[in-house]
Specification:
Helix 4 crosses helix 6 and helix 9 runs antiparallel to helix 12. The model has no long low-confidence stretch (mean pLDDT 85). By secondary structure, this protein is α+β, with helices and mostly antiparallel strands.
């Protein structure tokens, strides 16, 4: 075990160390990720296609409704940049710098559609419980030939050709990170998190393009669901390498490792030189407690009420199926068989009308089922469902948003 800071830095520079760290994070968040997948599946209403729209179990998708309501309440549009000087003096240079930064931010918001990754992160925040937005900086370097003044061995002035690398272009933008592709060190407080990581799925050409060490030997250990008859022939085409980009706050380095490969692919010294090191703010977490940083999906707070809502909806659907006008009639009056198909102001002729009248008319030869008890039960179920919806709105706080009595925050 490493005892000194120097020894610890050596250990953290190995792929084996980060494999253990990632496995530890996977283990700590295993139950939450499984629960998060179930919440997302419910939001998408991913039921069996054979029973879709016709199954005996009916769902009142209150999760979708609540999520869409909260999306609009939490984030509507990007704020307008407002860059001001800390010290409001009469220096024209600082004023121009503030104006330039403000316009650059506004341009970046418009060109890079900065609201899209934020909206995607908010959806993850509302469903599985964690939303992540990453800041990406991409410089483009070019190599130029320049004339450099020099002197020869005799002291004579001369010019030689040299190559110089410079930044030709640079981009800085927000990037959404799916909640399944993000890991962080287990901790109780956000400020105690000492490493954060995101997953990239890269092809062989992308591995080579990024200049990773031994790119041709890195295993392509990720692939989509196998397609019958094609997976074997096109395994190299569909497969990807599961590469993790890890930012370590202790060493202020960025590491790239691949699951199943025991060498560090690349290592960078403090790439962005940010004050807080990490290229992302603290994650959006739906429910956080002081004991752990593992999130809790908001849906779990009213899951029992949502299940009861589904049961009531299923029962209402089944009873509605029984609300049909049905009855029996005297077979000796064959005209009655056409009565159910008659339209408005349509009269069915009867050859034995006198006999029908003698029996007491239609009320005597035709009897229909009494459906009033079913209707009364339905009224009670509708009232119970309405009360249950109010309970869910109270739990989530949506009732306050609807009334406008509080701020969305």
């Amino acid at each position: 075990m490493a005892e000194t800071r120097k020894e610890m830095e050596v250990v953290q520079g190995t792929a084996q160390y980060w494999h253990i760290e990632l496995e530890s994070a996977d283990k700590a968040e295993k139950d939450w990720r499984e629960r998060g997948r179930q919440v997302v599946s419910r939001y998408r209403d991913e039921r069996n296609s054979d029973s879709f729209g016709a199954g005996i179990y009916k769902q009142f998708n209150i999760l979708w409704s609540n999520t869409e309501t909260m999306k609009g309440a939490l984030f509507a549009r990007m704020p307008q940049p407002d860059v001001r000087r800390r010290y409001n003096n009469n220096n024209p240079v600082t004023r121009q710098v503030a104006v330039m930064l403000e316009r650059a931010l506004q341009y970046g918001n418009e060109v890079y559609a900065a609201d899209k990754p934020i909206k995607a992160a908010i959806e993850d925040y509302l469903l599985p419980g964690r939303g992540v937005v990453w800041v990406v900086y991409e410089p483009v370097f070019v190599t130029e030939s320049i004339q450099v003044d020099s002197v020869d061995e005799l002291g004579n002035a001369m010019q030689i050709q040299d190559e110089q690398e410079r930044i030709a272009d640079q981009r800085c933008y927000f990037e959404y990170v799916n909640w399944e592709d993000y890991r962080e060190s287990p901790a109780k407080r956000p400020e105690d998190v000492y490493w954060k990581a995101r997953r990239h799925l890269l092809t062989r050409d992308e591995l080579i393009e990024k200049g990773f060490k031994n790119a041709k030997d890195i295993p392509l250990n990720w692939s989509p669901e196998p397609t019958e008859g094609y997976q074997e022939d096109y395994s190299e085409v569909f497969s990807r390498a599961e590469v993790w980009e890890i930012w370590d706050k202790y060493t202020r380095k960025r590491f790239f490792i691949s699951r199943g490969y025991n060498e560090v692919l690349a290592e960078d010294e403090d790439p962005y030189e940010l004050e807080n090191f990490f290229p992302c703010p603290d994650s959006l977490v739906a429910i956080r407690t002081n004991e752990t940083s593992v999130p809790i999906p908001e849906f779990t707070l009213y899951q029992d009420q949502a299940d009861e809502l589904d049961r009531i909806t299923t029962r209402i659907g089944n009873l509605i199926e029984g609300l049909k006008r049905r009855g029996v009639y005297d077979a000796s009056v064959p005209e009655l068989s056409h009565l159910a198909d008659a339209g408005d102001n349509d009269f069915v002729p009867s050859e034995n009308f006198a006999q029908l009248a003698a029996k007491g008319g239609l009320s005597a030869v035709f009897q229909q089922e009494d459906i009033s008890p079913i209707a009364q039960v339905l009224q009670g179920l509708y009232a119970q469902r309405s009360q249950l919806l109010d309970t869910i709105y109270q739990i989530t706080g949506i009732s306050d948003i609807i009334r406008g009595s509080t701020k969305a925050s």
